[in-house]
Write a structure and sequence with these properties.
There is one protein chain. The protein is an alpha/beta fold and about 230 residues long. The protein has a single domain, classed as Glycerol-3-phosphate (1)-acyltransferase (3-Layer(aba) Sandwich), CATH 3.40.1130. It is built from 8 helices and 9 strands. The protein has helices at about 1-20, 45-55, 70-80, 95-105, 130-140, 155-160, 185-200, 225-229; strands at about 20-25, 35-40, 60-65, 85, 110, 140-150, 165-170, 175, 220-225. Helix 3 (about 70-80) links the parallel strand 3 (about 60-65) and strand 4. Helix 1 crosses helix 2 and helix 4 (about 95-105) packs parallel to helix 5 (about 130-140). It is globular, with a radius of gyration of 17 Å. The protein starts with a helix and ends with a helix.
């Protein structure tokens, strides 16, 4: 399977660069090895091929809607990428435990889009708190990473123009839940703190429901850079 990924990911990256100009300089900030939770935005179906091909050869996995496996070609691809099938609209504990094992047993990087679905226009939607539980139960740091620009690919292709894509990487942090019960209010508050870290990496027009950065807090976030000082 590693041999297949060594063929597919670089080939896919080369194909993407034929119709996209991708600024991936920030990827150097992402560790080569996990365990790490990579929190990202979710614009459209190009997010996965851009992410997996440009993060190669890092050992990755990601939550992928279970319906993806209805398509034989996509099923083959996401099996190679070790995708974790997740049933949307419910609490999928099997997917949660697979992600936890990927972090703690396999030391992988797990990619999570807290929005849970594609925005299509690039504007952030409200985040869901599953990422908070996974980070707390695993004790693994979260690293915010964003992609933007790929919402314009369709229009640019019709105009025979290349699309500019930007990948930006933020600062890693853990969640401080000392003296806290994992109430819904606490999980939602921390989810918003995580989403604002994502929003800060995006141009203002992409921030959606997290546009007002004056509302951002870091009450429950502990940045790894602070621990090193």
């Amino acid at each position: 399977m590693t041999l297949a990924l060594n063929l597919i990911n670089p080939s896919m990256k080369a194909i993407l660069h034929t119709f996209m100009q991708i600024d991936d300089r920030d990827i150097a900030k992402i560790p080569m090895h996990g365990p790490l939770i990579l929190a990202t935005n979710h614009i459209n179906s190009l997010d996965a091929p851009i992410g997996f091909s440009h993060l190669h050869p890092r050992d990755l996995t990601a939550f992928v809607k279970v319906e993806t496996w209805n398509n034989p070609l996509l099923a083959m691809l996401f099996n190679l990428w070790h995708g974790i099938p997740i049933r949307r609209g419910e609490v999928d504990m099997d997917a949660f435990h697979q992600a936890q094992d990927a972090l703690l047993k396999d030391k992988k990087i797990v990619i999570i889009a807290p929005e849970g679905t594609r925005s299509w226009d690039g504007k952030l939607k409200k985040g869901y708190p599953g990422i908070v539980l996974l980070a707390i139960r695993s004790g693994v740091p979260i690293l915010p990473v964003v992609f933007y620009g790929n919402e314009a690919v369709g229009q640019n292709l019709r105009s025979l123009r290349r699309t500019n894509i930007t990948i930006r990487v933020g600062e890693p942090f853990t969640i401080d839940f000392s003296h806290q019960t994992l109430s819904r209010e606490f999980r939602e508050e921390v989810t918003d703190e995580v989403m604002y870290q994502i929003a800060m990496l995006l141009p203002e027009t992409y921030r959606g429901v997290y546009t007002d950065l004056s509302r951002a807090t870091t009450r429950h976030l502990r940045f790894l850079s602070e621990k090193m000082n």
